[in-house]
Amino acid sequence: MEGIEAEDSAAEGQLEEAYFQQWMSLSENLGGSWFPATLFNQTIPQLGRTEPAIRYAAIAVGALSKAVSPTALPGSPTTPTGSSSHYNHAVTYYGRALRLVRLQQDLSSDYTLRVATLACVLFACFEMLHDSCDAAVNHINHGLMIVEQFMCSHDTLSAQPLTGKGKQRAVSPGPFVLDEEILNVFQRLEFLTWTTRLVQQAPQHPPRVYLCPPRPYCMPSAPFTDVLDARGCLDATQHHLLRALATKGTTPLDMAPLEQWLMSFEPLYATANDTAASDQLRYLQATSLLLQYHSSWLTLQQQSTTSSEDTARFLEIIRLSEVVLLNQASEMFTMDHGPTLALFLAATKCVDHSVRKAAVELLKAYPRRDAFWDTRSLLAAAEKGLMG
User: Fold this and answer.
1) How far apart (Å, rounded) are the C-alpha atoms in residues 287 and 28?
2) What does DSSP say about strands 369-370 and 373-374: parallel, antiparallel, or unpaired?
3) Confidence (pLDDT) at 4
4) Closest CA to 162 of 211, 217, 214, 212
5) pTM for the whole thing?
6) Which of 30, 70, 151, 170 is the 20 to 30 Å CA partner of 186?
7) DSSP string for residues in 122-159
8) Which helix (H) or strand (E) covers residue 370, if one does?
9) Which secondary structure element, helix H or strand E, spans residue 281, and what is its range?
10) Per-residue pLDDT tens digits for 123-159
């Protein structure tokens, strides 16, 4: 009996290791287009060595990606395109992780707080891949609630303006509480949940915007010199505008912060474009940020698009998306902004038929998922609009 148990234990260990390696292969892309993904490929694996809940949650994501496709192509979880055993293992490990996190009710300690927030990120990742929008939003909302409570209780953060500049970025009081990379990821997840309002089947749990003002917002006043600073400032600007949108009532949203970001970013983009041959990474990062800016503008405006200015914006989205898609592996899965939503907006809102057609062709040619947005699920609506 002991020999059989040892064999079973060894087999399970090998299975877990295989799924964890699948998670590691996914983690490189989860942070977005060519940007560092240290939360996913370093912080989570490191904590997973000592925390079973985090390890099981990462293993569950790896197993689910194997179930829907060997290359992590999102599919229908109810009828997996891969082996059903992978799907069963994914659900089993996901259940284990959920139970372990629920046992940690006390969030007063630094350790349990960190585990809870990272678990929310992993659970949201699982549900996005599972194509369960409402469940993913629920996990993100729970994480945002924890973040809000944390931010409101730490005055040391309130003095740091949200500009995205390296020396001005807020840093948590302790390295094992909520450090900057966790806060930044939750800012992006917060904005991504807001984009779910653009679909007719809105989630049962509406996106949460945490209203405790943790840090004052400060517009950039000088051109960016570093693409990571520009990204941090864009995250902060989106968060600032979401808070304004959640409280404005019927007052039109002031888009000046986003336009100011663009003014500070344009010189950096021009330089990156000129030096693309010698510094392709910076060029691709800058291209991704400019695409995110246009997608954010359309999302926050939430208006019909009929002017020539809007058509020009959609043409720019097509151009930028082509650059991004041609330089990335096909069938990607990210938990960040990407071309999918921007192309869907171009395919459904632009009045120019040729622009809508170009957007549909790109969605069709490059299957992928960016957070909640899967090209396959959006294609039907986009093609219907094209024929209309």
Assistant:
1) 19
2) antiparallel
3) 39
4) 217
5) 0.86
6) 70
7) HHHHHHHHTT-HHHHHHHHHHHHHHHHHHHHT-GGGTT
8) strand 369-370
9) helix 280-301
10) 999 999 998 988 999 999 999 888 877 777 665 444 3
